């Protein structure tokens, strides 16, 4: 009877040891990769449940760095996974290569931006001097900008931005020049920059549109087309 009691007590003590050992192990948090602690949320003695609802620290892997770039909805339409990118950091002279890892399927409704994830890569020995940066020299959290080598628009039809009549958000319009009169035409636009606007529908190749102060034009306004002339000499000022 004493032996049985001792065995039962031993079993209880072993269970207590196992419980204490398991509890002790839960005080150790291990990451599956080497990296740098970038943020601490909870200190010693804090109660956590071991789930993502009670994070302890944020760890960034420094063996495979990513650059997060904000892009507009129009820019996202031109970006595809796998396209190459040049990333330049603003605080240093480092310039790195990379490739687009993820293009977001949506944009933030607050600012209309989506976050593109670019996987940074160390340059090879034959790279140009501007891409001479090294991953180990990159400070985590650094700011910069990325230039993505996006797909080509191909045979896109475009017009000068000065040919738009009114704001694009109100509905893009142009003043089509036809038989000495203006014809207001609604168009659909695609990609645009500071100088040109892609026309996806509403115009055909060869159509002539007015540029400049267009708000005073309406359907049927008499106009006269001016043939392009050579640029004036520098002494005469810029071409009107």
3D architecture notes:
The protein has 240 residues and is mainly beta. It has helices at 2-25, 73-76, and strands at 35-40, 57-61, 66-72, 84-89, 95-102, 113-121, 144-148, 158-160, 173-178, 181-186, 188-192, 196-201. The strands form 4 sheets. Strands 3-6-5-4-7 form a 5-stranded antiparallel beta sheet. It has a 3-stranded antiparallel beta sheet with strand order 8-12-11, with no helix packed on it. It has a two-stranded antiparallel sheet with strand order 1-2. Strand 11 and strand 12 (196-201) form a beta hairpin. The longest helix has 24 residues, at 2-25.
Keywords:
3-stranded antiparallel β-sheet, disordered C terminus, 240 residues, single chain, mainly beta, 12 strands
Write the layout of secondary structure elements.
Blueprint: H1 2-25, E1 35-40, E2 57-61, E3 66-72, H2 73-76, E4 84-89, E5 95-102, E6 113-121, E7 144-148, E8 158-160, E9 173-178, E10 181-186, E11 188-192, E12 196-201
Antiparallel strand pairs: 1-2, 3-6, 4-5, 4-7, 5-6, 8-12, 9-10, 11-12
């Amino acid at each position: 009877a004493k032996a049985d009691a001792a065995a039962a007590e031993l079993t209880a003590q072993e269970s207590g040891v196992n419980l204490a050992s398991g509890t002790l192990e839960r005080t150790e948090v291990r990451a599956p990769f080497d990296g740098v602690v970038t943020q601490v949320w909870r200190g010693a003695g804090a109660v956590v449940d071991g789930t993502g609802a009670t994070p302890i620290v944020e760890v960034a892997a420094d063996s495979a760095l990513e650059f997060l770039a904000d892009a507009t909805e129009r820019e996202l339409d031109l970006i595809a996974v796998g396209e190459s990118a040049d990333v330049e950091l603003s605080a240093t002279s480092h310039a790195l290569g990379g490739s687009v890892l993820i293009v977001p399927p949506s944009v933030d409704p607050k600012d209309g931006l989506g976050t593109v994830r670019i996987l940074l890569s160390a340059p090879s020995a034959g790279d140009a001097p501007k891409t001479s940066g090294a991953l180990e020299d990159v400070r985590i959290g650094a700011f910069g900008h990325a230039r993505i080598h996006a797909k080509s628009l191909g045979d896109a039809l475009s017009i000068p931005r000065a040919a738009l009549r009114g704001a694009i958000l109100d509905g893009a319009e142009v003043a089509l020049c036809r038989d000495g009169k203006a014809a207001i035409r609604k168009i659909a636009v695609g990609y645009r920059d500071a100088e040109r606007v892609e026309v996806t529908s509403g115009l055909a190749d060869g159509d002539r549109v007015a540029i400049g102060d267009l708000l005073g034009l309406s359907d049927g306004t008499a106009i006269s087309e001016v043939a392009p002339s050579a640029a004036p000499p520098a002494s005469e000022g810029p071409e009107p």
